[in-house]
C-alpha cells in the first residue's frame, strides 16, 4: 500500500494493526494508517464501512480490541486526566453540530478553553471572538444555536473545536446534514483550515473538497482500507472493484 501523503511528513497519528469488533461484527480490520503532520486525509466509503468508528477510535470515544493508536508518538491514554488531555488535542466535528442549546455561540466556544484548558475568561473570550470571525459568524456571538442556520451552527462547531488548539481535527460527514446552499460555506472554512496547515481527517463524499484540499484519499469498505491514493488518482483511476462500484453510485 502506498503512503502517498505521508512522504516527507512527520507522523502525527499512527494506527498500527488496529482491530475492533462490535460483538460478532469485525468493524475495523487490521487498519494501518499513518497521518502526517499537516496532512489532509479524506476517508470515503459506503455506509457501514467503519469510517465513523475509525474517527471515534482516534479520539478514544471507542476502544479498540487489538493494535495501537498513537498521537504524536504517544499511545492513546486509557482513562482519567490523560484521556481528557487527549480529547482536548483531537478536535472533532460531527454531522450533528452538538452545540449547547442553552449557551450562546460565544459561550459554546469559550467553554472548553475555560473548563479544560483553565484559560482566564478574558483570554478565552478574545480568542473565541477571533475564531468566530474567522469562520464568518463573529456578528452572531451573542445569539443561541437555534437562532442560526445549520451552516452557521456547523461553523461554530468548527470554531469550538479549534478553540482547544487541537493537534488534529476529525470531521465526520460535517456537511451531510446541511441544506445544499450551506454546504459550501462550511467546506470553505475547512479548505481555509487545510491551507493553514491543520492536520485533518475528513469523512466526506464531497469530491470537490477532496480534490481541492485532500492530500490523500483512503477508501474503506467492510472495515478495511481497500485503497489509498491521491485524490486525482483515486477519483480518475480507482483500482479496486469496490471503489469503482462505489464511485459509480455517488458520481
Ligand atoms: P460508517 O461511518 O462508515 O457508516 P460506522 O463506523 O458507523 O460506519 O459503523 C460500522 C459498522 O458498525 C456498521 O455496521 C454499524 O452498524 C456498526 N456499529 C457502529 N456503532 C456500533 C455500536 N455502538 N454497536 C454495534 N454496532 C455498531
Ligand atoms: Mg459514519
UniProtKB/TrEMBL annotation:
Signal peptide: none annotated. Pfam families: ABC_tran (PF00005). Belongs to the ABC transporter superfamily. This is ABC-type polar-amino-acid transporter. GO terms for cellular component: plasma membrane. Residues 13-247 form the ABC transporter domain. InterPro entries: AAA+_ATPase, ABC_ATPase_HisP-typ, ABC_transporter-like_ATP-bd, ABC_transporter-like_CS, MetN_ABC_transporter-like, P-loop_NTPase. Keywords: Amino-acid transport, ATP-binding, Cell membrane, Membrane, Nucleotide-binding, Transport. One of its GO terms (molecular function) is ATPase-coupled polar amino acid-transporter activity. It comes from Nocardioides terrae. Gene3D superfamilies: P-loop containing nucleotide triphosphate hydrolases. It comes from the Bacteria. The keyword Nucleotide-binding applies.
